[in-house]
Each structure stands twice: as structure tokens, then as C-alpha cells.
Amino acid sequence: MMNKRIIYGLLGVVIFSGSLKLGHAQQKNFETTTVASLPSIFPSPVFMELQGESFLLGQSVTLVALPEVSEYTKTAVVKMLNKAGVKNVNTTQKIPKSIRGTVVVLGESKNGDGKALLSNHKGILDNHKEGYVISSGKKDQGFLISLMGHDAHGLFHATQSFAQLITSAFFPSLLIQDYPAQPIRGSVEGFYGKPWTMLEREQHLLFLSSVKANTYVYTPKDDPYARDRWREPYPADTLSELGRIAKIATDNHINFVYAISPGPTICFSCKTDFDLLKDKVNALRSVGVRSFYLALDDIEYQKWNCNQDSITFGKSGPEAAAVAQSSLLNKLQNYIKGVDPEAPNLIMVPTEYYDAKETPYKAALRKNLNQDIVVQWTGTDVVPPSISINDAKAATKVFGKPTLLWDNYPVNDYAESKGRLLLAPYDRREAGLSKQLAGILSNPMNQEAASRVAITGVAAFAWNDQDYDASRTWTFAARQLAGNNPKTTQALLLFFDTQHLAPTFGTHPWQVQAPSLKLILDQFRDALSYGNKEDRAQAIKSLLNHAQEFRNAPNIIRSGTIDKGFIREAGPWLDAMAIWGEALESVVLGLQELEMGKSNSIGYFEQAQELAKKAAVIPSTPGATRFEGPVKIADGVLDVFIKDAPKLLYIAKVSK
What is this structure's pTM? Predict the structure, then answer.
């Protein structure tokens, strides 16, 4: 029998808000409506089912925020209700004895009132941290919506699902029982090149919370006070800003992790260096940071930085480096736990951070490192084309514990990604990895807003890898960027397709370029080669329509309700796409003229080549990425078609 969850997931392809708005328009004088479909919630919940008819929220709603609910969470739900058209939100801390009108209850399962509301839900929140239950439907003389979390984090995640549900005047009667597969989910700002601004970090934290991620690691390689000048204290204003960002993270149930990278210069056995490391930790603790990380990636480990280390740890080399690193990490873990027993465990990224081959370094790290310290691993390569369950099992064996995956996607700070935004969906990670890993963190691009497309997939996969659908999540990411506007969503998906290529350090990408456009162009070639005159005419007409849609997509994106940061970051690529679209349109018009036997087709083809040359040299934003270069749009697909198009009809006719 097909899993109930999967059936509902397929039904959920229908956009819920649209169906409810239709029901509201048709039955505005009724409290309930039979027009309903299971909503699309991202990440996909573990379990979801409809329990009856949708119901009208009404102009006034009673919001019951049980005593344990934070003011931040309560205020967020009030704003969601107001956005959905509720004019009056009456707040209280007590559940009414009899439900009248619409009542929304927020709480945690540990609370007595919360437990009572969950009495029929099989104790799902007893065993799952960050889990939540949403139950809604008719109750007494009114309607009850309850959002219950296993803990404060779970309740906050429930509100993020609530935000996706409350998109119209009607609300579905349903039951959602949900919890994350991975305990650590989010992103690590760990790229080379221009770091994000504090405003971009703030926006990224709000984004992470919306997709139920729970971790953000601050470790930009080009922050001098975290790497090259780690011994020096932060300027007061920068430290204050980091504290402000950490507070935003805490309010939104994101663990702000500060990472320091002392490896290039540290003397592992030097007390002074360790004291300076503690000073840096304490400075961050003073502004509210409680979680820390030691980054030992991309450093020299064949020789010591000081003579004292050779006396303490012996001859330099990978094995001795692992022993020295373990010693430092263990001391730092003990210090942090000593001053804050409830602090999260220290995280580290080793110098040998990829593959799962046994080495002297990994063996020494496995033997000497405190078992509570979390170890990061990037997969089978620095930028792995895929990650399987067996890969993760091998990593667990070689590191001695399940690893936290540092997934180098969609980061674009290496030469193979030159001129690219990486906007393909998060894919080729095997369902079931949640049982083998300690979590997943994505390494994003220098472009924060554009990174959300892939990170939406990372978060969804980390939450529920068994029901993860890369394509649907990709569409959801476009819809979120577009503010739920269908026309803008479609334009974004056309643009995403031109940036679908996902490179690795090797010669073959792990995701191909422009698969949707390639299919359209291949079908067009087939129609010219094997179709009759009517088939060719229809194929030309269809491709002309697509070329015009392609050309217009950048203007639609820029005029829509899209995040302004995305528009700014993607600007050069949008400029190039519009010109490539003109070139494609010109080529198709030339083919049309040629098919009709007219003599002026050559002018269209020449114009297309000039446009292609112009589009091919548009530079990326200066200083935005480590490797700059002309932007690429559907390269290897669109440029090849435009170059070869004048020959298509000739070849097709000769072949017949």
C-alpha cells in the first residue's frame, strides 16, 4: 500500500492558497467550505492529514499564548493573523472552557494545558526534540487551532508551518505531526572572498528560521579577526554587531556558532596562545554567543609554527598534528563547559576534512579527540557529486563518530565556479543519511539571497530526507522568492535553469546545465529533422514564444516582489539572460524566414551572433566573488544552438 504521507504529498502539488481563495469567493456566507486540498508544507512534514472541512478564521481571533511562550513567538503569530486579514487578535494565557469563534493556542507539551490538548496524539512529542503538532478543526461552538511544541524550538517550527497554512481567510482542518530527522541543520558562512554584511546575515537568519533550520556558523575566511589576526580583539563596534546578530539568531531559534581559525599561526602547546583563544571566546560570550567552533581546514600540517610544539609533540607531520590539535580542542571544550555547562559541544573541522580513507592523521584524531566534540566532513571530495549512506558509514568508521556534513554547495569561491550562480536544486544525497550523520550544514555562495535557493533544499532534506523531493522544493524556493506570484515564479524557474550547472573540482559537473532549455531545443531539432512542413512551422512558432518568454523573464523578475538583495546579486546574469533571449528570438525569426523561402534570414542570424558576443562578455560584479569572470548563461546549450541554428533547416532538408 502506498504510504499515506506520499499520497497527501502528491495531492499537495495543488497550491493550497489558491483553492481556498476560490472556496472563499464562492461560499463567503458560510463558516466552512468543502473546497480543500492538502497544503504544501516545506520542509515536508513527517505526517499530515485532513480532518474535515476548511473553516473561516473570522475578523476576530482569540490567541492563547501559554505562560512558557516567548513574546517574540507570540508577536510573530499575531503578525501572521493580521496578514491573513484578522483585524482583532485578543491575547490571553488561558484556554477558554468552551470554544467560540476561532481560538489559536500556542504552547509546549510539558505544560499541563498543552498535554491535555495533545492527549489524542499518541505522545509524538515525548521523544522528539524540536518536534511539534498542529491540530485544527471544529470544537464546541467554534474552531480550535493548536500549535504545540516538544520545546520552545518545536513551537517556533510550528509557527513557521502555520505561516504557510494561513494564506487566506480559510484555514484547513488537519493534523500535522512533525519533527526533524537531523539535529543540526543550516549553513556555514565559510567561503573565501567578500564576507556577507551584517544586514545580509540578519536576513539569512530570518530565512533559515523560515525553513526550520537551527544552526548558523560564522566563519568567513576573510574576517581577519577570526583567522590571520585571531589573537587581536575585535573592534568594539564589530563585537557589538556580532552580539546583535547573535540575539536575532537566538530569537529565531538559530544556534549562532562562532568559529575561530588559528591554525595558520597557532603554537598548540603555548599557554599564551591558549589564553588568547580563551579571551576571544570570552569576548564573544560577553555579547551572547554560547556556541563555538575551531576551524583547522586549509592549513599547513607538515611543519610546526613554533619550536615548542616539536618538543611537546615530537617530529612534525600529519599524525603529530592530529595529536596536537586534539590536545588544543580538548582543553577548549573543557574550558567552555567549565564556564557554561549547558553550552553546545565544540565543533571542529579537521585538516583532512574530506574522503573517508584511513590515514595516520585520522587515526590519531579518532584516538585522541574528546568524543563529545563534533567533527565536520565534506563528503567524498571537497565538492562531492553525490553522498551515499555507505559514504557516511565509512566516514563514521574513520572518524570514530557520526560526522556533521559540511556540504560545499552552493559555494562558488573556487575556479570551476567562475562566472556562475549555483541555482540547481539540492540533489544526489541519499535518503537515509539522517541515520548516519550528526547533521548537515551548507556552505553558501558569496551571494546571500541567491544561496537561499539551494539552502532551502538542504534544510528540507535535513528535516525529512525520506520524503524530500528536490524538484518540488526547488519550485517552492522560487515561489518564496517571488512572494507567491505565479508569473514571477515561472520567470525565476526559467532563470534558475540557466544556472543549473553544479561544478566540482573535476572536469565533469554533478548537475548538468540548463536541462529544461536543452529539452526544448532538442525537441525543436527533432521537429525540423523528422517533421513535415506543418510540424516545422509549429515548432518554430512554439520556440519563438519560448524565446520571447526567456527574453522577458529578467524584466518580470526585476519588476516583481522579489527580495532586492537577489535582484542586486543576480543583476549581471539577468542582464546577460535578456540579451541571450534576444539572440535566441533573432535566430528563430531567421529560421522562420528561411522556412518561408525569404532572402533576408541572414540578417537575423548575423544579429543573433552579435548579441551572443555582447552577452558573453558581461562581467560578474567586481569584488563580489573570489574568482571573477564573464557571467555564464545556459553555456554549452544556448550558445551552441545559436551558433549552429543557421545550418538546422539546411541539414534537415538535405537529410530528407
Answer: 0.92
